[in-house]
């Protein structure tokens, strides 16, 4: 059918290869889903993934940059995001994460996304993970 | 374009201001996303957010009321909800939460939403958090 | 209205009854949401739900089979899945889960779904839970 929706993988050149058979992002019709991103620096061939730094600020900003790269590669903007899921490892990081989050989104030109923040375990050294659901159009 | 989808923030008057730049709910087209809700009582100006009570029952019912307020403000009903994500802090709360959940949804007139329940950390004093994805139409 | 979307519960015959008033899956329009699945074997009348086995491999394969049964009952394939949320209880299970995941999805004919993996608590004996969001069409 001519109106069959295509599902497309979104793989920014800067991203490290996923550690398993999943996509950093997928788009189908006007739905774009971003996989859980962490604070890994842009990929360097031959190097294993490296976090932007040990601090919550460094990792949060890099994680948001990684989400944004996938959104843009898929034709979306932050303004298209409906939901951000924020996974922290430490309840005491909530206030600082919110500060960074507010600075980061200060210039948003539409209603901000909904958000859920919960506290989970993450691999050693990682303090934050974020995924996103966007609706384009 | 006349058919461009608008993203709208959903902010019930009863709700405390979000602690960061996110929306309690957003709607775009026929998709409505409710942010993670906890058992905070309706906002009182000048007071910080206060849970409905210390018990799982009090917090669960208030949390569901908070989700419902956002759904209704966005033009949706419980029947439009596709997915509820329930975050508990204690595995031993599962059975009691299910009892409360079943009472609460006893009168649902359509297929109930799908649901995922997992056990995470939440800020001190909070026992449950719930978010929701609805499809209207 | 003739174009009103219907919400339909998806309940494979093999599945144990949900422990509360939720659906194993729901479909509305071209959106299909699969509830959190664990590694329970196909239901046997009169028996309580039983995990496929104690190992991560047994539970992961059964969990994926349970997700797949709901997708298929709802008219979807793995290729339609946009997002898989994987909940593990142990960070040390990540590498092995990825191996199993890659074997399982080796024959996927389209872009794989996005994925988020986080580490949470689950009821005793359960090592993995997975839910899924699919867009058909």
Report the average pLDDT across residues of chain A. Answer: 95
Q: What percentage of amino acids of chain A are in beta strands?
A: 25-35%
CATH class of chain A: Alpha Beta
List low-pLDDT spans of chain A.
none
Q: The CATH topology of chain A is what?
A: 60s Ribosomal Protein L30, Chain: A
Order of strands across the widest beta sheet of chain A? Answer: 1-2-3-6-4-5
Mind telling me the C-alpha Rg of chain A? 15 Å
User: Main β-sheet of chain A: number of strands, strand sense, barrel status?
Assistant: 6 strands, mixed
Fourth-tier CATH superfamily name of chain A: RutC-like
Give the fraction of residues assigned to helices of chain A: 10-25%
GO molecular function (chains A, B, C): deaminase activity
Pfam family, one (chains A, B, C): Ribonuc_L-PSP
Protein name (chains A, B, C): RidA family protein
Organism (chains A, B, C): Streptomyces buecherae
Give short descriptive properties of this protein.
60s Ribosomal Protein L30, Chain: A, alpha+beta, 2 helices, globular, 137 residues, RidA family protein (chains A, B, C), six-stranded mixed sheet, homotrimer
């Amino acid at each position: 059918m001519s109106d069959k929706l295509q599902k497309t993988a979104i793989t920014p050149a800067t991203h490290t290869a996923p550690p398993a058979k999943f996509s950093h992002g997928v788009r189908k019709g006007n739905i774009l889903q971003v996989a859980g991103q962490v604070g890994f620096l842009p990929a360097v061939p031959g190097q294993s993934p490296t976090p932007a730094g040990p601090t919550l600020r460094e990792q949060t900003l890099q994680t948001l940059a990684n989400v944004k790269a996938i959104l843009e590669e898929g034709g979306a903007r932050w303004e298209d995001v409906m939901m951000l899921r924020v996974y922290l490892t430490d309840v005491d990081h909530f206030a600082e994460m919110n500060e960074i989050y507010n600075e980061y989104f200060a210039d948003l030109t539409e209603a901000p996304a909904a958000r859920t923040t919960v506290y989970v375990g993450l691999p050693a050294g990682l303090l934050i993970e974020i995924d996103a659901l966007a609706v384009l159009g």
